[in-house]
Design a protein that fits this description.
With 63 residues, the protein is mostly beta strands. The N and C termini lie far apart (32 Å). Bound molecules: zinc ion.
Length: 63
């Protein structure tokens, strides 16, 4: 399973592939893979989220 984050509203989804439409904002959003692949955040395979990816993506479009 991969952790996906909606770049628009920040909604988190666990799935193998991101959905076409975000269940939270009901729009075709860009989903960012925020899964952790490094030991620092727990490593892959157990639904861990990489906090660095989580912060750097999505926040930049906020106004
Ligand atoms: Zn969304």
């Amino acid at each position: 399973m991969t952790n996906w984050k909606c770049n628009k509203c920040g909604h988190l989804i666990q799935a193998t592939t991101p959905p076409d439409v975000c269940p939270s904002c009901k729009e075709k959003c860009e989903f960012v893979d925020v899964s952790c692949y490094i030991p620092e955040c727990g490593g892959p395979g157990s639904g861990n989220i990489n906090p660095q990816v989580f912060v750097t993506s999505g926040e930049k479009d906020k106004k």
